[in-house]
Structure formats: structure tokens, C-alpha cells
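Feature request, filed as a ticket because there's no other form

It would be nice if the structure record came with a short human-readable summary line next to the C-alpha cells. Right now we just get the raw output. Example of a typical job, pasted below so the devs can see what we mean:
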Amino acid sequence: APVTIPPRDGGATFATPHEMMGYFSGVLKDAKLCRYLDGEARDAVASVLRAHPDASRKMGRGAPRGFQVRQDPEKGYRYFVVIREDGTAEDFSVRKGVDALFPGFANVKRKGNQTRRERPGADGNDVNAAANAANFSSPSSAVDVAVNAARLNRVITDCVSVDELLELLATDRGALARFDHIHVPTAFVTLNRLAAAAPMGDASGAVRLKLDADEGFRSLVVLARVMCADGRLGAQGLSNVLHALASMHARGVLSVDGDATNLRGLVAALERATPRLSKKMTSQAAANAIWALATMRWELGADAWDALEAAVVRLGGARGSMNGQEVANVLWAYATFGWDLAEETWSALDGAVTSVAGGGGGGGG
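Raw output as currently delivered:
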């Protein structure tokens, strides 16, 4: 039967799942990168995400800020992301939403007569199944590498507790050895989400004790530092790691001043990578990085400070891409730092505030 999204008067109606997939392919192709979708496209993407089987986790707590189209910097493909209320970004599969809206579409034969199969450990309750799912066979082609990487990323995000994620990070499982520049930030973001959802008694002290004593978490911290040094960690990854660390630091889940896991060394490595990566940051990545550093009361060196100011100048202004929340986060951070800003930085922020107040800018707050 035809499906209308959103399911109300004025929504777009699709007679077949293939027609709906074609519509979203057009949105991916035509949308401006890293800008909030609006109008019909925004409403349609919101509807298909709500139909996604993992919608609640994808959207996070509260109402999402909006939706964007982004592009993989290495492979060039485009994909949808939802920007959660806390500013973090999560990619999602439109196909899974269409599968749910058109029952039976998931069972349509794919190229090579392969049908969709359940991934091991997909119910999120079997720790050993999730960990074993990361022990993939050696890839024989570039396609195998991409499939294995996506599968491992799903195993990370499917963890339902801090203990399950730490089990996955355990060095004897072998999963950590396969982590790339995507998996490392995903692990930190997932840990932040799971720690925030922990029972009240575990919200700070108990989780902190687990992290301080966990060899897998210490290895993850070391790996993140190495990726900062050798250039594997990208701009969005750097921002995501900083945001996750700062969020957990603010809640007392971990401390960047603690000695057990050498988080201070990780933040220092992230700062050193900032001048190199700041030119590639989106407005959301820059705002989150600046907010995170201020939240941790991190004393920035001149190189990182200048690089982040330059990013604000590039992304702010009346024609920039910063939205209301991003502008507010940056202003709060600079007030917390207590540093004097260059005149052009103030001008860019003033222009962004004016644009947001007038309904322009990045399209939401």
C-alpha cells in the first residue's frame, strides 16, 4: 500500500519502496553538505528515522536539533546524520526505515541473490556474541575492508551498558586491534552515552572506578593518542572525542586530571592536532571542540587557540553556517576561558548572532 511521510495532510506519498528510496537518493545528491535540512526533506527524513528499528538510540534523549547530509572524506559517499539535542551526530540508514514502512521490502533479493541476515549479537544482550562478532576474517578486498569496518562500528554502537563496551575493548578479544579512525571516536561517544544512562548509583563514582581499572579503556586512550600523532584521526573524530571526554568530565565519570588512564595526555594530543584539523571542521565540530576544552578548563596553547579562532571566523558571520546552539556554546566557552578575542572573531560571532536572530545561519538551534 502507498505510504505517506510525514503521515499527515501535505506529506509526500510513495507507491513503492523503490520510489521512496529514489526520493532519498535525490535528497542526498542535492543537499548542501553539513547544513540543516528544511521543509519537506527535513520532515521526510525525520519520519523515516522514526520508523528505524533503532530510532530511540539514534536520536538520543530529547528532541533532535535537525538532520544533515555529510560526505565521507576518504570514500566520497554521502550519508544522513541526525544532530542530537546534545550536539553529537549519529549516522543512520534510510534503508532500514524504508524496510519498516514497507513490510517485506527487507526480504527482497539483493545483488548476488543475497538476502539480509541478522548480525550475530544483534539483540544487544549477548556480550560474548558482540565481542566475537568483531573477530572478522582477513579481508580479501577493499569492499571486505569497508564491510568489516561498518560491522565493527555497529557492534560498538549496539552495546547496551558500560560493562558490555569494556568487554568489547578487552585486549584478549582482539577487537581493539581492528579499530580505525571511525571506531575510536565511536567508542568514546558510545561510552559517554552509556555512562549517562547508567543507574543513578553508577552515574559517576562506580563507572569512574571501572574506567580507572580497565586495561581495555587505557588501551583505547593510548590508541586515540597515537591516531592524533600519526594523522589518522580526522576533524570530526577529534571533536567527537573531545565532546565525549568533556561531557563525562562534567558529570564526574572521569577526570582529565586523573593519573590512572592518562587522559591529560590524550587531551594534550588532541590539542596538538587541532591546528592541523581546524580548517576541516564543520561549525558543529568547531563549536563542540571549543565547548569541550572550556568545560574541562583546559589551558590552550597559542597555536590551538589561534586555529580555533580562525575556524570561528571562517564559520561565523552573517553568511556562515553556525546555528543558535553553536553560537551560544562558543560564546559561553570564550567567556569561561576569559581570553581576549581578536576583533575579527567578535565580528564573526556578532554576525552569526544577527543571522540566527533573523532566521538565517545554520538553520536551527
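Something like this underneath would help us a lot:
The first helix runs from residue 17 to 30.
The two ends are 37 Å apart (CA to CA).
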